[in-house]
Amino acid sequence: MKIELLDLKFTSDYFYIEQKSIVEKLTFNNRTFYSKFEKFKTPLNPTLLTQHFKHEITLAVSLVENSCVNYMVIEYQQKDWNAFYSLIKHLLKSLNIQNFQAYQNSAKEHFQVFIPTNDTSLELVYKEVENIQHLLELKSKKSYKIYPNKNLPKNLNIITLPTKKA
């Protein structure tokens, strides 16, 4: 099922809702991960999206579908997101990436940059993520996350949906 939100389009038959306590414990590459996101195997509906925009619930979707990725996402959780956004714009321009969108989730102070990849294979996206991450490490402190992350299980490569355009 197609999900359209702001300028973003996702294809998914399931979604996640953030819970107050840990829902799932996973072991991956000798590491243990705890997730507060509960998976619902039904399509997302307009009522849930309305609740998300009113900050009553937090919705998330998977970035990895059938070993393909439609978006790379850079997430930043600091109040000085404007300075970080300037850095990201410059970095992406230097990599000849012209197409990207910036969003915010005002309730959680998330700043997110979505970079469309149009059904690119997971391995190619991992290489591009590593390249962006390497360049960001040279210029910025480590207060950002880039998804999809190959050090996470595929079902934890999820991203919270933004609530407004930056």
From TrEMBL:
InterPro entries registered for this protein in UniProt: DUF1882, HP0184-like_sf
Residue intervals of the DUF1882 domain: 5-66
Name of this protein: DUF1882 domain-containing protein
